[in-house]
Amino acid sequence: MLWSQRTITLDARQRGFHLITGEILDGLPEIADVAIGLLHIFIQHTSASLTINENADPDVRVDLESSLNAIAPENFPYIHTMEGPDDMPAHVKSSLLGASVIVPVANGKIALGTWQGIYLAEHRDYATPRRLVLTLQGE
Question: What is the value of pTM for the model shown?
């Protein structure tokens, strides 16, 4: 049984959905040694989130951002406003999407579907670098 855990830092990005599958794989080269297992990816922040979605058509990213903005608009009468108008909506969006994803590993590769990719959903206008904890379990 193999266990491996790494923390990687993603560069700060603009608000929106960013494909990070490659950065995750680059940060965990030992995945190539796993025949069967699970990769847990956790973001250590409350104003960004992770999701798995279509990676082929970039319009999906735009529509996801627009949809979340409609669900958690900046002009809602939030009470928590000390960090700016985008902060509380970012927390709502992060809670909706979640702080982690789990991906199966098969034959040294993550077993995503044909059109799937792992995304950082950045919900702040002026983001900071984001830390991810990658935990690999397998044989």
Answer: 0.96
